[in-house]
Specification:
Shape of chain B: globular
Order of helices and strands of chain B: HHHHHHHHHHH
Number of strands of chain A: 9
Strand content of chain B: under 5%
Low-confidence stretches of chain B: none
Helix content of chain A: 25-40%
Low-confidence stretches of chain A: 231-243
Helix content of chain B: over 70%
Oligomer: heterodimer
Radius of gyration of chain A: 18 Å
Number of helices of chain B: 11
Strand content of chain A: 25-35%
Number of strands of chain B: 0
Distance between the termini of chain B: 36 Å
Order of helices and strands of chain A: EEEHEHEHHHEHEHEEHH
Distance between the termini of chain A: 33 Å
Structural class of chain A: alpha/beta
Largest sheet of chain A: 6 strands, mixed
Largest sheet of chain B: none
Strand order of the largest sheet of chain A: 5-6-7-3-8-9
Structural class of chain B: mainly alpha
Shape of chain A: globular
Chain lengths: 243, 271
């Protein structure tokens, strides 16, 4: 198995406060990994590092064998939809197509083949009927699917998702994970979540992150144990990290 | 109403004013749309007020005030843009400082230049009835620059307005695009200052686009509607002020303000 993401002894501090300490993480091709941890455990920092928005204070990060910044065009990033201005006048299909833009594509319109590809993806995600709707008119699940479609437009090798089911109805949660499971057949998926119960039945690896990290294979842990650890005490998640 | 049209036919200053209103409304609709969807009204306010500094310095040095205005507007657009992108300082503090220091410089330099005190009022409140042929040509050129740039970079400007972080990930030159957009807004502001003045310019820039934002389905539709609205506001403002012998700039703004208030009420009733 090839390693698509590799972190060696990565540390990052906000001021004097460590956000991540000596993180070692390996994601292999076609993994479906969840990074779980409490708020303030460094999940967002890890995402920023993987996208190359910030540099680690020490340690090394390799994405697809190169630096995160150089690997960006192979990463499909799916942010939390709640970050968006829901009044923004943009249609679903335009959101999806926008990830193919470059600075010098000087025309107000998209090529037909891009439009066709976007429609295919909307079809795949079962939201082709809302292609012409404004983003603000959609439900949470539909918005999330739109953002996944946008990420898929560039045929990414890695899909990186930030809390894909945060603020989504739990009945729709399953649909989103089913879609991800299907996409996992040819894409490596890494998602960040604090919602533990659901995720463990879909992913093959779980990394617990609370400033330091520890990776488990899902087949080795029972959902219940993980749930207890998470609900019970944060200490149990620290895996002996001396902080 | 008929005698207003009669007057327009017979007075070239009214014709110029109406033409200037149309040309200004077009650029205003285009860049105002970005100001609204990117929520950068405060930045635009900072740019507008710093312009007085440029006008003051130009008077003092004896050069064309419009040149001073352009230089200061573009400078403050670049400064504000860099500060926002680098994020090292509090953006709102820097904008407020530029805002006030620009105005202070303007007042001091105008004070130091004898005989131009009355022009201060023109720059603060504008006077569309004083628009010259040359001003109209400058407006035409600016229209071409702004329309051309926005046609070419429409999707990119939308992308950085909608999701700056994602635009950066997908490889767009966000810093360049953002500063370029601010420069286009700065150019629009200088043009609008001729018409309604520094104090009122933000209202003319944002009111039509804010109304279009309530009903528009896409940024392009917003641009079109706000340009039309701008033309209606300036046209009816000129006519009303001409009839009742009121200052034109403020009359235009009051018309826009009433329209905005009405459309908010209509929108609330609808939903």
């Amino acid at each position: 198995m090839t390693k698509v993401i590799e972190l060696k002894n990565v540390s990052y501090n906000y001021g004097h406060q460590p956000s991540l300490k000596n993180i070692n993480l390996e994601v292999e091709e076609n993994d479906f990994m969840a990074i779980l941890g409490p708020n303030g455990g460094g999940k967002t920092t890890l995402l920023k590092l993987l996208l190359g928005f910030i540099q680690p204070d020490s340690g090394e990060i390799k994405v697809l064998g190169t630096s995160p910044q150089q690997a960006r065009h192979n990463i499909g990033y799916v942010p939390q939809y709640a970050e968006f201005d829901s009044d923004f006048p943009i249609k679903v299909i335009e959101v999806v197509m926008s990830s193919t833009l470059t600075t010098n594509s000087l025309s107000p319109k998209y090529h037909n083949y891009i439009k066709k590809r976007a429609k295919q993806l909307l079809n795949k995600l079962q939201i082709s009927h809302i292609a012409e709707k404004r983003l603000g008119e959609l439900s949470g699940g539909q918005k999330q699917r739109t953002l996944i479609a946008r990420a898929l437009m560039i045929d990414p090798k890695i899909l990186l998702l930030d809390e894909p089911t945060a603020s989504i109805d739990s009945s729709i949660e399953k649909d989103i994970y089913d879609i991800l499971k299907e996409l996992n057949e040819d894409t490596t998926i890494l998602l960040v979540s604090h919602d533990i119960a659901f995720v463990s039945s879909y992913v093959n690896k779980v990394t617990c992150l609370n400033i330091c990290s520890c990776t488990h294979f899902t087949k080795d842990i029972k959902g219940e144990t993980l749930k207890e650890a998470y609900m019970g005490s944060i200490k149990a998640l620290e895996h002996g990290c001396n902080l | 109403m008929t005698d207003f049209f009669y007057s327009v036919l017979h007075h070239s200053f009214l014709q110029n004013a109406i033409l200037a209103g149309i040309l200004a409304s077009i650029v205003c609709g285009i860049t105002g749309t970005f100001v609204i969807i990117k929520r950068i009204t405060f930045i635009s306010g900072g740019i507008a007020h710093s312009v007085l500094g440029g006008v003051g310095v130009a008077y003092y040095l004896g050069i064309e005030p419009l040149i001073g205005a352009f230089v200061f507007a573009i400078l403050s657009a670049v400064i504000i843009g860099l500060i926002k992108l680098k994020g090292k300082q509090h953006e709102d503090t820097v904008i407020s400082a530029l805002w006030a220091v620009g105005m202070a410089m303007g007042v001091i330099f105008m004070h130091l230049t004898p005989g131009y005190q009355s022009d201060l009022m023109t720059y603060l409140f504008g006077n569309i009835l004083l628009v010259s042929r040359l001003d109209l040509w400058i407006l035409v050129i600016l229209n071409l620059i702004i329309i051309g740039s926005v046609i070419l970079l429409y999707r990119q400007f939308i992308a950085i307005s909608f999701d700056e972080k994602y635009a950066r990930i997908s490889g767009l030159k966000v810093n360049f695009l953002y500063i370029f957009l601010l420069i286009l807004i700065a150019l629009t502001i200088v043009v609008l200052i001729q018409i309604v003045g520094i104090i009122l310019v933000i209202a003319l820039l944002t009111l039509p686009a804010a109304i279009a934002f309530l009903f528009g389905k896409s940024p392009a539709a917003m641009m079109f509607f706000s340009a039309i609205l701008g033309i209606i506001f300036t046209g009816s403002g000129i006519a009303f002020s001409y009839y009742h012998n009121l200052p034109t700039g403020p009359t235009i703004i009051i018309v826009g303000g009433i329209a905005y208030l009405t459309s908010i009420i209509l929108k609330r009733k609808k939903s």
